[in-house]
Amino acid sequence: MPSNSVHSRNTLRQTAHSAFYNTLMALMRNKFSLCGLIILGIAILLSVLAPWISPQNPYDLSQLDIMDGRLKPGSASMSGMIYWLGTDDQGRDLLSAMLYGMRTSLLVGVSSAVIALTIGAVLGLISAWAGGKTDALIMRIVDIQLSFPPILIALILLAVLGQGVDKIILALVVTQWAYYARTVRGSALLERRRSYVDAARSMALSNPRILLRHILPNCLPPLIVVATMRIAYAIMLEATLSFLGIGLPVTEPSLGLLIANGFDYLMSGDYWISVFPGITLLVLIVAINLVGDALRDILNPRNKE
């Protein structure tokens, strides 16, 4: 019996590796998704290395000089430091602020998506498996959640909780978990009617094992697609909240906050304060959406022969 269990785990692991490899190869054969993967890889690498490659730490107020505020791209400070992308109104090196801001955006987007996915997947599985009143209760909560605009919920939560990375992650989790719950429930309802679920029940396997080891892996393809799209939306929502001044504090610049800082100076000719972070945010979101669109086509069972 133990040998059969080990063989089953090895087979499952090999199948997962094969599916991951085939999906990655399919993404690389698509020129648009390949472009998105390259951009994402560069963005992640720059974000991770930001503390070491940034000319300045934009969070350290002692390194800022208000006299260097709103310098044009390519200008030099009194100390000889060159601001390749210029500075904002606080004297921050815009290149450094963008690297740290991109790091914050990716951290917030991925973290909120992972936490929301975990909560939504668990509730979706419980809803599909239990059925009856439990299913009705969870789905009514999901319907109520989805009936409100996400930005409105995030605004209310941040107005109560205050500013901070942890606060905005919590707000994004609250606004996103329902999408994952509905997606998992729909897939799990189909999977629970499969013969392998009946076989698992006949072997007296526990409900958590059936759900987590058998049903959940078969719900992953649509879940991965939704997660990719929601990461892009979370980054965009964080930027929107920071632009409105209720997301991250001024001492922790994000891409949205950098855009907001330069908004008042657009008409005066200091375009770089808003334009460069705006282009970075746009490219990042487009890259994630390119990968998400390709994953949707690759993992769609109707496209498989």
Automatic annotation (TrEMBL):
SUPFAM superfamilies: MetI-like (SSF161098). Belongs to the binding-protein-dependent transport system permease family. It is a multi-pass membrane protein. The chain crosses the membrane at residues 32-53, 106-129, 141-162, 271-292. Residues 102-292 form the ABC transmembrane type-1 domain. Gene3D superfamilies: MetI-like. The lineage of its organism: Bacteria, Pseudomonadati, Pseudomonadota, Gammaproteobacteria, Enterobacterales. CDD domains: TM_PBP2. The keyword Transit peptide does not apply. The keyword Transport applies. This is ABC transporter permease subunit. Signal peptide: none annotated. PROSITE patterns: ABC_TM1 (PS50928). It is found in: Cell inner membrane; Cell membrane. Keywords: Cell inner membrane, Cell membrane, Membrane, Transmembrane, Transmembrane helix, Transport. It comes from the Bacteria. Pfam families: BPD_transp_1, OppC_N.
